[in-house]
Write a structure and sequence with these properties.
alpha+beta; BirA Bifunctional Protein, domain 2; Herpes Virus-1; Rossmann fold; nine-stranded mixed β-sheet; five-stranded mixed β-sheet; 16 helices; 35% helix; binds adenosine-5'-triphosphate
Length: 506
């Protein structure tokens, strides 16, 4: 009877190894090809800090532009605030008091690490949102020991994740903080922007900017960082309008992929129309509008396969007290062993403007001319970690084949769209290829020229950075002005006239 158990443990080990290998493979390519790499490597670096190389930066720019083009609707605007904000901002927002993670320390070797993640990894249960008392109880009852030296663990305690910073010459008399989210800037700018714009609700303020969190145990490489980029939209609206949505007819039959808090046990995902989610799950129409909008961003714009996507509900204990509805976007990341959070949709109610109004003693309610009434708007927040999404796309589109590695990115996010190669760099082929490359760039296609190594090696190199097309200039080109276009995924080749190349690629 022991055989199945042994086999199972081998399978689990195999899965774990495959996960580690995939993560390693992706990171190796990322480092070797200039996607991302640890910052200050020559000094040993610090966990949680990464630099985007030239390809990673191109990809990040493309993601951010796609995101802006998609989410900035009518009466939605982008602003750019600051990363350093005064302490009053975070007293009001509650970050100074509540932005904590549970920390535990080994009494012998003094290794410090996140208690909830440790409990999750050791006991294979969900521990996010548990109280310090519950975590301590689980550690004691299961006799969990230090993962480094096997020593006894001290009682868990809260650790605040804010980075304090001193301003000017005032030293510790003037403490500010590095912002842990971009959201506070739109809240602080709300009234000014409302007045400067059409004085109408709903309206959205978006910001793409840096966020800083002093994570206790940043791990999983690029997934959990201490300095990262967020892309967030704060939608300000009249609370009376939460169950209305102008384009409702168009979206009511759209099917959402939902895992409610109740569905977690059997790992169930239900496919349910917006109409049914409104009636049966009591989710308001405006919230559903943004749920489907976010789902479509992943399925239609980023082309994430349906099976790797879900909207995941946080239970009452897991979500912040002010969030009435909180669903995250989870993507299936093989390198990290399953579904992980990459974005969230938070109904923050009147918490933010209300708290800033109280702290600053400045009125933030606005007068709505059309409705002849004053309101303190409520906020729906669409929050994305840009770096985490880049990592997720690398994982989702990574393929390790017998002869090659490739990222099967859709062209919308591929850092480079076309590689242009002369078959050989003599007899005028190189010059011709450079002219073709220049013409493609002029036509707005992100192409690059490469003449080093055999043509097979050049194909492998562009596959490895996710370039969807390669164009080869050969001796026939010199006779008939046609080139070979090779598609990355199928490796199929076809002949195209240079005069029609840009149009055909587009
Ligand atoms: P987590 O539970 O993973 O710590 P969170 O729920 O605290 O994340 P939010 O505060 O909702 O995250 O932030 C919004 C988004 O910012 C997340 O969905 C994620 O994409 C990104 N994000 C949050 N923390 C980090 C981090 N340490 N490194 C990289 N991205 C992050």
């Amino acid at each position: 009877m022991a055989a199945p158990a042994q086999q199972e443990s081998r399978e689990v080990k195999g899965d774990k190894q495959a996960k580690v290998d995939r993560l390693k493979e992706i990171s190796n390519i990322a480092e070797k090809r200039g996607i991302f790499f640890p910052t200050a490597e020559i000094y040993g670096g610090k966990a949680g800090f990464y630099t985007y190389g030239h390809l990673g930066k191109l990809m990040k720019n493309r993601f951010e532009n796609l995101w802006k083009g998609y989410f900035l609707e009518e009466n939605f605007w982008e602003i750019e605030g600051n990363s350093i904000l005064p302490s009053q901002v975070f007293e009001a927002s509650g970050h100074l008091k509540n932005f904590n993670d549970p920390l535990t320390e080994c009494k012998s070797c003094h290794f410090r690490f996140r208690a909830d993640q440790f409990v999750e990894d050791s006991l294979k249960i969900k521990a996010e949102g548990l109280s310090i008392e519950d975590l301590d109880k689980l550690i004691r009852e299961n006799k969990l020991k230090c993962p480094r030296c096997g020593g006894q663990l001290a009682k868990a305690e809260w650790f605040n994740m804010m980075f304090p910073i001193t301003i000017g010459a005032a030293g510790s008399k003037d403490i500010s903080y590095l912002s842990p989210e971009t959201a506070q800037n739109p809240f602080l700018s709300f009234k000014r922007e409302f007045e400067a714009l059409r004085k109408k609700l709903p309206f959205g303020l978006a910001m793409i900017g840096k966020a800083f969190r002093n994570e206790i145990s940043p791990r999983q490489l690029f997934f959990r960082l201490r300095e990262f980029t967020q892309a967030e939209v704060q939608v300000f609206f009249d609370p009376e309008e939460i169950d209305s949505c102008p384009g409702w007819k168009k979206i009511s039959s759209y099917k959402l992929l939902l895992q409610s808090a109740k569905d977690r046990k059997g790992d169930k995902v239900q496919e349910i129309t917006c109409e049914d989610a409104n009636k049966k799950l009591k989710l308001p129409k405006m919230y559903l509008y943004y749920m489907q909008k976010m789902q479509r961003f992943y399925l239609e714009e980023l082309r994430v396969p349906k099976k790797d996507f879900r909207l995941y509900e946080l239970s009452e204990e897991e979500r912040a007290f002010y969030n009435k509805y909180h669903w995250d976007i989870y993507l299936n990341l093989e390198a990290l062993g399953g579904f992980k959070e990459v974005a969230g949709l938070h109904y923050r109610g009147g918490h933010d403007l209300g708290a800033h109004e109280k702290q600053s003693q400045k009125e933030l309610a606005v007068f709505l001319e059309e409705k002849k009434k004053k309101v303190l708007p409520h906020v729906l927040e669409l929050s994305f970690g840009v770096d985490r999404n880049i990592f997720a796309l690398l994982d989702i589109f990574f393929r390790s084949e017998k002869e090659r590695n490739l990222f099967a990115f859709p062209p919308s996010i591929a850092p480079i769209e076309v590689g242009v190669f002369p078959l050989v760099s003599k007899d005028g082929l190189a010059e011709k290829a450079q002219t073709v490359n220049d013409e493609l760039r002029k036509a707005g296609i992100r192409s690059f020229y490469d003449e080093d190594g055999s043509i097979g090696r050049r194909y492998r190199r562009v596959d490895e950075i996710g370039t969807p097309f390669a164009v080869t200039i050969d001796y026939d080109t010199m006779k008939d002005n046609t080139v070979t276009v090779r598609e990355r995924d199928s490796m199929k080749q076809r002949r195209v006239k240079i005069a029609e190349l840009a149009k055909s690629l587009k």
